[in-house]
Amino acid sequence: MTTLLPLILATALGVQAPLPPPSPRLEEGVSLDYEFFKANVQPVFLKKRPGNARCLVCHRGWGGVSYLQPLSPGATTWDEEQSRKNFDAVRRLVAPGRPLKSKLLMHPLAEEAGGDDFHGGGHHWKSQDDPESQTLAAWVRGEKLAR
Q1: 8-state DSSP, 99
Q2: How does pLDDT run across 82-99, given as a tens digit for each residue?
Q3: b/e per residue 98-136 (b: at least 16 CB within 10 A)
Q4: Would you say residue 16 has pLDDT above 60?
Q5: Helix (H) or strand (E) holding 114
Q6: How many H helices and E strands in the chain?
Q7: Residue of 43, 22, 26, 24 whose CA lies nearest to 90
Q8: Alpha-carbon distance 130 to 43, whole Å?
Q9: 68-to-36, 46, 78, 146 alpha-carbon distances in Å
Q10: How confident is the model at residue 22 (pLDDT cuts 50, 70, 90)?
Q11: Model pTM?
């Protein structure tokens, strides 16, 4: 909870909190695939879940815990420029090759499943086997989009 305090305070004050620095340790040979991110990871951020906020609701724009670009008026997904910015921001929340060390996967995961104790938007996944969690884990492990 101590590491969340600055983010909570920044959100309450409406101040942009800095993103964490990129993971200092990369698994050898693992790179994050932009096309996989765009096709498979970004839709997870837009999905409505009963009882929980969509990721986009809390993590868009310039607030304390923001890393997603706001959607353009009338848009249902991001354009190419916005997707690139999302990719650059979101990759700072992962440890390539190490899904269980990646904040992007552990923060919305239920505490009973090994996730963080608190996530303001609710714990989206009750298990590491959840299909959305598995999609994000595949990207973090370096899976490429089949072409």
Answers
A1: G
A2: 999 999 999 998 999 998
A3: bbeebebbbbbbbeeeebbeebebebbbeebebebbebb
A4: no
A5: none
A6: 7, 0
A7: 22
A8: 15
A9: 17, 10, 10, 25
A10: very low
A11: 0.74
